[in-house]
Write a structure and sequence with these properties.
The protein has 30 helices and 31 strands. The chain has about 850 residues and is α/β, with parallel strands linked by helices. It starts with 17 loop residues before the first helix and ends with a helix.
């Protein structure tokens, strides 16, 4: 990076707070600093700290993005009149510039977590700074958690500084209750706002028009435009190139996958006499000062990758940014002078935006984080001091994958294989493939390992020029450039081979070897052709190739990369290899699972059993079982009930009422250990409560003929059954001799339906469960039609009854409608029969 750094403005707000920050760090182990965009926290503060003798040891500063880490390091180094790598250095994935003289290291991309894992005491470091923590990147959250554990367990003298543009929705104080807190003022210069929503669906065309008008209206300074992704940047660049003079305007893209040299060009000052238009993703939101920016045009969108636990891939979707991001983006216009920001959404919509971005730990892939946790010695991410708990579903998928790859054991403890994989510094899938490839080579001349290194480098590449899904077409990319460099790094980490082995492996590579290696990394993505163009993955998901792809028509694939998008039923295959099914009886035999599948044949009305050879959801072959033993039949019954639900068993009302009474007993806290008779619990415990009664059951009619009331009643001991019958009886004895059924409902209400005349003389509604539950009375007409619903009989007799009596007395003159119902004896007779009996 050869940019000429501009001086940090003298009026940067953070400078007025330097004395307080120095004192707070001297007096406290932890400090939370709230400093909005433009305050100078990423540059002026660490620059000043280098001259503070109070900080013992080196300073480690975490930036959430690689471009920001490199830029900040170069900026501060230039301010000190040094080349980067002297007192100020950086470490990002695949690139570093540090030396024995370095006292401030700017790191990112999980580098901090690996530094802590390798040296849990962080020897030689006195302060760890977490910048832009409000962005809630997963690696930042995890890095902070590990740093807090280091401080608590090994290094009481270690200082931790957490910096955020905003604390809205960020429970840092709850995580760090002993931390001191300071607040800095915001940006250096004011930024005016205007709103220009698109009047039509083509918002990119509207954005181009707004930008052309803005640079015409504002004659000074450059412009920064925020877009959701690379595709939109490319189209907007084309639209602007057609509308603006290339001699006056330099249009440059800026996004994470851009080569470092082009990123440097995007943030450098424009050539003399020209204005720059920087078209950027959210990488430009924070920690970057792009020279000469006075205008910001914000589309208000971001492209978010949300992990799908069903397919174990991230689904890309276009989403509105948060209010916090909008503030960050507008602040870019006020870093060096007064500026203006144009937002391409309605002003009234702004207040409806989320206050802050959702933490990545809630929607991201947690596989790397889970392996980090296992390497640290814990078997759940929740065991770490995280700002927010992770997605339970995503974490479960992560641990299951690590177990499938033998990186952790059944108790989620890291294995020797897992430790070796972690040290390779790539995704656990690829690390497993690399280690397996070394085993495949054995004592022979390396072939599988260098080939695996090439495949891993291709899959990790962010700059691959796409030309179809067949990964074998890209192997030659690893003969040079960044891909070759990364492949060689993997070999170096494994102390195996040099560039000549890579070149030889590429030349000698065979489709079946590529497929074998990828299948070891992605066993859940082995794919079988389904229909004209689609494929079924072993994980159960569906994917498809582009219509013109060279792999179209292959019966089997291993899919290394596929992408899910909103509105699409199938994922789109990005990288894959053709697969020979003969490998399932050879190199991939360990992936084939043999199991017995049982079920119910609707047409033949009988249970069946099959032995299957399968990989996940894909059945390779199957054959019917000649005979079914009792256990096989049981398993078939269980599977049928779980598929169809308890409705298959035809529970009658008596059974359903028992289930509701037991649930209510537990809800009301009645004494006893009440069984869970919910559908979910019963389906999970079929072998426990139903299994003992299935001897000889081979047909559905036999199954449905079982006495389910007794089966469920036997889940309770006799004494508990008595408690239930006394506290929550199935019937209530009326004084007329009628045993009126009490109907229990899901809402927890107990309903007693009786003719009004049989309730005469009752001063109040019955109370059940030691007085905890008042029965609701449904009072019926002589024709058994509802007249009133009440849980307060005394109030009903005194009030609403008068109107009921007035209306019903003429309709049912033969029945009793007394003036004083509360003090009248109940009856189920007509007045004539009462008279005949002398009543």
């Amino acid at each position: 990076m050869n940019q000429v750094a501009q001086p940090v403005p003298n009026a940067v707000p953070i400078q007025s707070l330097l004395g307080e920050i120095k004192q707070a760090l001297a007096d406290n182990a932890q400090l939370i600093l709230q400093a909005p965009t433009g305050a100078g926290k990423s540059t002026a503060l660490p620059l000043a700290m280098l001259d503070w003798p109070e900080i013992e040891g080196k300073i480690l500063m975490l930036e959430p993005r690689r471009i920001a880490a490199r830029s900040v390091a170069h900026f501060i180094a230039a301010r000190r009149g040094e080349a980067v790598g002297q007192s100020v250095g950086f470490r990002v994935r695949g690139e570093s510039s540090v030396s024995a003289k370095t006292r401030l290291e700017v790191v990112t991309e999980g580098v901090l977590t690996r530094m802590i894992q390798q040296d849990p005491e962080l020897n030689g470091y006195g302060l760890v700074i977490f910048d832009e923590i409000h962005e809630r990147h997963l690696t930042t959250d995890l890095g902070l958690a590990l740093a807090l554990e280091v401080q608590a367990s090994f290094r009481e003298d270690l200082k931790i500084l957490a910096m955020s543009a905003t604390l809205d929705g960020l429970p840092l104080k709850a995580l760090m209750p002993e931390a001191a807190s300071l607040v800095s003022e915001g940006r250096s210069f004011p930024v005016s706002l205007s709103y220009r929503p698109a009047a039509h669906q083509d918002w990119l065309l509207h954005m181009a028009k707004v930008i052309v008008e803005a640079v015409g209206e504002h004659q000074e300074g450059s412009l920064l435009a925020f877009l959701p992704g690379q595709r939109e940047i490319a189209r907007l660049q084309t639209l602007l190139s057609e509308r603006l003079d290339a001699k006056q305007f330099l249009i440059t893209p800026l996004y994470g996958a851009l080569p470092p040299a082009q990123q440097d060009s995007a943030i450098a000052p424009p050539p003399p006499g020209m204005r720059k238009l920087v078209l950027a993703t959210n990488v430009a939101e924070s920690s970057l000062t792009i020279q000469d920016i006075r205008l910001v045009v914000d589309a208000g969108f971001k492209r978010q990758a949300s992990f799908n636990p069903k397919t174990a891939v991230s689904r890309l979707s276009l989403k509105r940014i948060s209010q916090s991001s909008a503030a960050q983006r507008s602040g870019r216009a006020g870093r060096l002078s007064e500026g203006h920001c144009i937002r391409l959404w309605p002003q009234q919509e702004h207040e409806r935006l989320l206050k802050a971005d959702e933490p990545e730990i809630l929607h991201g892939d947690l596989t790397n984080a889970a392996l980090d946790a296992a390497y640290w010695g814990v078997n759940a991410l929740g065991a770490l001091p995280l700002i927010s708990p992770p997605s339970e579903a995503n974490e479960t998928v992560a641990w299951n994958l690590l177990q499938a790859l033998a990186l952790v054991d059944g108790d989620r403890r890291i294995t020797a294989h897992g430790r070796a994989a972690y040290r390779l510094g790539c995704h656990p899938r690829l690390a497993h493939m690399l280690l397996a490839a070394r085993e495949m080579d054995g004592m022979d001349e390396p072939y599988y390992l260098p080939l695996a290194a090439v495949l891993a480098a291709l899959l990790e590449s962010r700059t691959l020029a796409r030309r179809g899904a067949d990964i074998s077409r890209y192997l030659n990319d690893a003969r040079g450039g960044e891909t070759a460099k990364l492949a060689q790094q993997y070999l170096t980490r494994m102390d195996a081979g040099r560039g000549k082995e890579i070149a030889k492996a590429i030349s000698e590579s065979r489709d079946q070897d590529i497929a074998t290696l990828l299948a070891l990394a992605f066993p859940d993505r082995i794919a079988k052709a389904r229909g004209a163009k689609g494929y079924q993955l072993a994980c159960g998901a569906g994917v498809a190739l582009n219509d013109d792809d060279a792999l179209q028509g292959e019966p089997w694939l291993v899919v290394a990369q596929f992408q899910e998008s909103e509105g699409q039923s199938s994922g789109r295959v990005l990288l894959a290899a053709k697969l020979d099914a003969a490998l399932f009886d050879g190199a991939l035999a360990s992936l084939v699972e043999s199991k017995v599948e049982t079920g119910w044949d609707e047409e033949k009305a009988r249970f069946y059993g099959l032995t299957q050879a399968r990989i996940g959801a894909i059945i390779l072959r199957e054959r019917p079982l000649a005979t079914l033993d009792e256990e096989t039949i049981r398993q078939a019954i269980y599977q049928l009930i779980r598929t169809k639900g308890l409705s298959l068993l035809g529970f009658d009302d008596k059974v359903e009422q028992l289930r509701l009474r037991v649930a209510l007993a537990s809800q009301l806290g009645l004494a006893g250990d009440w069984p869970d008779l919910s559908e979910q619990a019963l389906l999970m415990m079929l072998p426990e409560w139903l299994g003992p009664y299935l001897d000889g059951v081979r047909r559905l009619t036999q199954l449905k003929g079982l006495d389910f009331y007794t089966l469920l009643l036997n889940r309770m001991e006799w004494g508990q059954q008595q408690v239930l019958n006394e506290a929550l009886p199935s019937h209530w004895p009326m004084k007329t001799g009628t045993r009126a059924a009490i109907r229990y409902e899901n809402s927890g209400r107990a309903l007693l339906s009786v003719r009004l005349q049989e309730a005469l003389g009752m001063a109040e509604s019955p109370r059940l469960a030691q007085g905890k539950l008042t029965v609701t009375m449904e009072l019926l007409s002589p024709a058994m039609r509802p007249l009133a619903l009440t849980a307060d009989l005394a109030n009903f007799w005194a009030g609403p009854y008068v109107e009921v009596k007035k209306e019903m007395k003429g309709r049912y003159p033969k029945h009793l409608w007394p003036d004083d119902p509360a003090n009248t004896l109940p009856t189920k007779l007509t007045k004539k029969k009462m008279s005949a009996k002398g009543l």
